Amino acid sequence: MAAKTITLNLKIWRQAGAGASGRFEAYRLERLDTDMSFPEMLDVLNERLTLEGREPVAFDHDCREGICGMCGAVVDGIAHGPAKETTLCQLHLRHFQDGQTLTIEPFRAKAFPVVKDLVVDRSALDRVIQAGGFISVNTGSAPDANGIPVPQHKAEQAMDAAACIGCGACIASCPNAAAMLFVGAKISQLALLPQGELEREQRALAMVQAMDREGFGNCTNQRECEAVCPKGISIRNIARLNREFLRAAFIGEPLK
Amino acid sequence: MSWFTRTASSSLGKKYIMALTGLLLGGFLVVHAAGNTTIFFGRSVFLFYASHLHALGIAVAVAEVLLLALFLTHAITGLLLFVENRRARTSRYAVCSSAGGRTWGSATMPYTGMIILAFLFLHLVNFRFIDHGVTIADIVAAVLARPLYTVLYGAGLGALTLHVSHGFWSLFQSAGISHPKYDRFIRISAWLVCGLIITVFAAILLLLLVNSNQLS
Predict the structure, then answer these.
(1) Are B7 and A226 a contacting pair at CB < 8 A?
(2) What pTM was estimated for this model as a whole?
(3) B11-210: what fold?
(4) Fewest CB atoms within 10 Å of the CB: B22, B58, B107, B175?
């Protein structure tokens, strides 16, 4: 099959550093192979900028196969771009038209300060996980695989929630910059399993408290998060978060 | 802080407050619409309903205070959430588009809420804080015979439609009530109740505009 090439006009957010004011810069890229991924296109641009002695565009990326959660930017107002259940690195140029103009912005939220250009600091999510997104177990030799029975449908639901790669697109797309889909998924993957049962109340209280401390917004059930999530995490997990927290608030031990 | 105030002031706590007060206000709306259907049967039925309602005496006063508390809690918590949510995104996107989750109702909740609040003042001035020397039937007929009020009440109704079209479903999600077994049922029931209430109110508006003898 003969390779197809297109021309794209890019408007990319450039910001020198955390406190600096940013602005859009326009670039025109010609003869782009449509089999290229989005970060590969940015590589092409950066190669050119470097050769011209200009500052390359800073953007986050790592595995480039849609599983690490490192990449992400907002393309024409949609986090991770227009393709459903796709990370930015798995978005290929065949989804765009020849001559199309794309506006590329960083994830915007108060809790995600811009580090440089398209790179944002998502460590707020790490701090929410550190507050309770784990189970406390003594380490030792590996337990027997079926030592603790788990019903198949529960295992499936927990696995669906555990598919969250923590990319932050839910927060970027939420009109309120709320982190409920992320926290809902992280609460659910443990709440559904017997291993997570022991600490479920403390976990719900601590993670919600940490989430509020980071300055995320409040969920108004607009479902934009679910629509952009590259892993198709359902807002059913937000409902579970709401249940878990309500239960913990009324019958759990208060946090120390 | 006690566990209760800590829960109530958390992000999820405020959602529960919105859901609970929203549910109770929705219940009031259903009763209000049901009571108003007596207008369809003419002056005597409407006045019969009004006199029996006021015969409840102290219960009406208590209900009014509770309603005021509900409205205030819902509106104040809602405004607080609106401000907090705006603060959670300090820099705006240059391009704003929906990935398909938002509806007209969900995207406009704070704004329709404020319109409803303004409408409530008008509504109370028209029918509650007024000289009750004449019967309520005459007051209603006089106000809603004027096209200006049909337009104002229509706008209030429009905002209410958008608001409850999202709210009736949203309150279940906020309370954590979501399951494949009954998600569809909740979604459809929410639309039906919303449609039914709005139809009743809209029909009354139009009826009193075109037929000035409905309540005489």
Answers:
(1) no
(2) 0.94
(3) 3 helical TM bundles of succinate and fumarate reductases (1.20.1300)
(4) B58
